């Protein structure tokens, strides 16, 4: 099986798949509005506060961008998890599988870079950790570290370029063919608008702490809580690079593993996901 037509999917699956595209369009559109107001150099925290408090409807577009971006990542995660749970990865071509998993990875990279671009103390800590992890990569760490975050007044410039230009283009290029089967109907568009509108109005963005202000219990994005716990339990090279790298390689290789290797690899991925969820829960409850 390559691509099962959307009409053959269960109703709930058709709805979830159809929600991704409108959420993506809303995320890109609201991000484009914020792009013209955001200043990636200098006092970025002040720039974000200016957007939130002084720019007309700035707080609305920030919340809308946040909500739609989170929704895109969650829907992509559900889509790939559904493939894993039903064993569809073994019946999917390697090219299609790499596009799906690569798109999911880019969705989370967009969330991570967006988290850093908040410009508050938590984002500075997250950017510093990301730079240290990138610098710990064997052989290419010295080259990767400056691509994570910059220095001084340009600290937020690399994640800004990645978040606003490189990653969105890469995501659209990867999912271009796949999105054709996810075209939503009017009911799906209405549901997406209601859900994102409700989230935008009711869910606050939190009270940011200016850079340099001590923060008790600072944490990164929700999907990296497990990684934070892993880094607490073992050296950064193992917890932040080797183990995650092996997991991603195993996931990417699922379509080409045949015979006696197929089921063990499939179950190994599911076990790793379960263990990571336990780490996420442990960190969240700490």
CATH architecture of the largest domain: Up-down Bundle
Indicate the radius of gyration in whole angstroms: 20 Å
What is the CATH superfamily classification of the largest domain? Cytochrome Bc1 Complex, Chain C
CATH class division of the largest domain:
Mainly Alpha
Number of strands: 0
Percent range for β-strand residues: under 5%
Helix content: 55-70%
Description:
This protein is mainly alpha-helical. The protein is built from 11 helices and no strands. It has helices spanning 11-35, 44-53, 58-85, 94-116, 121-135, 141-148, 157-175, 186-202, 225-233, 236-253, 262-285. α1 runs antiparallel to α3 (58-85). The longest helix has 28 residues, at 58-85. It is globular and about 60 Å long. The termini are far apart. Residues 1-7 have low confidence and may be disordered. This is Cytochrome b/b6 family protein. Pfam families: Cytochrome_B.
């Amino acid at each position: 099986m390559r691509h099962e037509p959307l009409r053959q999917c269960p109703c709930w699956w058709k709805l979830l798949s159809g929600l991704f595209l409108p959420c993506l369009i809303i995320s890109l559109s609201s991000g484009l509005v914020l792009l013209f107001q955001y200043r990636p150099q200098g006092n970025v925290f002040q720039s974000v506060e200016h957007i939130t408090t002084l720019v007309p409807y700035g707080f609305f577009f920030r919340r809308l961008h946040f909500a739609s971006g989170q929704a895109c990542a969650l829907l992509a995660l559900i889509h790939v998890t559904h493939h894993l749970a039903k064993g569809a990865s073994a019946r999917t071509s390697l090219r299609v599988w790499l596009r799906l998993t690569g798109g999911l990875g880019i969705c989370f990279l967009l969330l991570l870079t967006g988290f850093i671009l908040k410009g508050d103390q938590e984002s500075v800590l997250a950017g510093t950790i990301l730079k240290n992890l990138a610098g710990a990569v064997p052989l290419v760490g010295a080259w990767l570290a400056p691509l994570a975050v910059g220095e001084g007044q340009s600290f937020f410039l690399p994640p800004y370029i990645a978040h606003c230009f490189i990653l969105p283009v890469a995501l659209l290029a990867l999912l271009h063919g796949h999105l054709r089967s996810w075209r939503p109907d009017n009911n799906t568009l209405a549901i997406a608008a209601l859900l994102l509108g409700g989230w935008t109005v009711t869910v606050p963005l939190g009270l940011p702490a200016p850079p340099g202000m001590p923060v008790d219990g600072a944490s990164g994005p929700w999907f990296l809580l497990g990684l934070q716990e892993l880094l607490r339990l073992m050296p950064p090279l193992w917890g932040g690079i080797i183990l995650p790298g092996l997991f991603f390689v195993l996931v990417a290789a699922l379509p080409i593993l045949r015979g006696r290797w197929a089921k063990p690899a499939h179950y190994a991925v599911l076990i790793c996901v379960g263990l990571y969820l336990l780490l996420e829960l442990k960190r969240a409850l700490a």
